[in-house]
Amino acid sequence: MKRRCDAPARGTWPVLLLPVQAALMVGLGVLVTGPAAGHWPFAAESRANQDLAERRAAPVTGVSEWLSAMAATETIIGVTLLCIVALLVLPRVAWRTEALFLGASVAAQSAVFVVVTMFVQRPRPAVPRLDGAPPTSSFPSGHVGASVALYGGLAVIALLRMRGPWRYAVSGALLLVPPAVGMSRMYRGMHFPTDVVGGLLNGAATLLVMGFALLYGRESAKSAKTAKSAASAGSSESEESPSGGGVATAGSPGPAGSAGSARPGGGAPAGHTVVVVRHSLGCPDEPADRVRAVLTARGYRDQRWIPTSAERPCGALAEEIAASAPALVVVCGGDGTLRACADVVAGTGIPLAVAPCGTGNLLARNLGLPLDPAGALDEALAGESFGIDVGRVEGDGLAPTRFTVMTGAGFDAAMVRDASPWLKSRLGWAAYVLSALRHLGDPGMRLSIRIDGGRRNRRRARMVVIGNVGTLQGGLPLLPGARPDSGRLEVVLFDPRGALGWFTAAGHLAARILRGRAPLRQAASAQAGGRREAGGALEYFSATRVDIRCAVPQPREIDGDVVADGTRLTVAVEPGALRMYLPRAPSAPGGVTGPRAAEGRTGRRPTAPAHQPR
Prior knowledge:
15 strands, eleven-stranded antiparallel beta sheet
């Protein structure tokens, strides 16, 4: 993680305290169940549980059941995911750090809990129990620890982000939940008092560690960033010409001094044609008008707009290319529209630019483009033409086609297939998260995987994803080794086992958000064979050709478009097949140039296709 010299030094090193926390919790558990077990007050614990069991009453039992359910594993997972989605979607600016803090706290608490129960084997109280006893140790209380991590984490976020006296009321109400859960667990005969105390300590310590790692000093850093931005803006203003216009650049199309019109290699000569493929629902009139204005300012006055349809997701693009040999193709749509256009344009030498108007816009995100359609197009056309890879996929019942982002089978395809169109129109990509909750309990699939013609390996997985780029919505790097100009595809098999597996995988992926993009050498580490991470829940491969065969038909998707269920996916990379205008090298949204970025530059605008599309 990069540190700013003008902001408080704040890294993720406090996470290294989690093993220390686990060791201390193990020591406390061994002490309570060993040398101190026969001494007061520990010797009186059993009597406290017996007193509660003898005083059970129907109304209290009902309340205790409700409180216990609030901290059940399924509830904790579901509420955590919903809260993360809300933190990313509902505010005007996504609260990514707070969402990461909440998810990481719940996952880390669970991991510490599991470690402690491996060393501290404490039986449940010898009283009639109202719940089924899980196989884990009674010390510490997992329900209580999870409730502290979740509801205590929400209380911290409320204190930090809410304004006015309501934040204290909300935070106080949330902080009352864990002690209430602890009382309900003792009442129901599931834990000794020291188990509840242990759960409270474990959850509180996790919040302290994760809060210090992710939230401490954040406001100071934001203030320093704001101050520096203001100083930079003032410096920029002092360098502008007295007339108030920007500095004119040689070769700029349009009137001299017009903002945003300069680009390396000059503007488009008059008469050069641009074909604009427009998804009418994703790109309504207002953004379409702004896209048209950007193209005109860049010198593209001969614009041919073609609409898409369900039957023809790229419209009449192939016919238009054959008829006019355009200098540029612009895609106003989402990843599905972009994929269909790339399938036609790839290999022709005609450059493509994207004005992202879809739900996910994953290619635009991975290439470092803004998600404003006109802004993204303007930045791209101010840059250069680069070659990026595309994948070519085929299978049973699936005609060969290209993709630019990802293809896969299993859990992710089912999630995409069952996402509500109504929710997608209102929540955007968050609708996929809600759809995913419906498929958490789906069975895994048996499959075989062959990498670059090698031997076939048999696996079980919840999903398989093959990607040309690696970052999902919310900045989640599912395929950290994927680069769009590497000449290779990255593969992940996702197979979490049980609640612990899901928590481990979630915590592992959340930690990646903190680390940022993986170094390029990480992709090479998986070329010789699979690389397992997150306790085996994630297995990675890198290849130029991948062959997947499933035992039974599975849901499949290509760049967010659901295709027919099937048993086979055969995917190969086409290196540098698609030329795109981008503000920077495709592997370098943060300034790190990919292996073929330099040789992929043209520095000029191609005026005709190298050959006609297939």
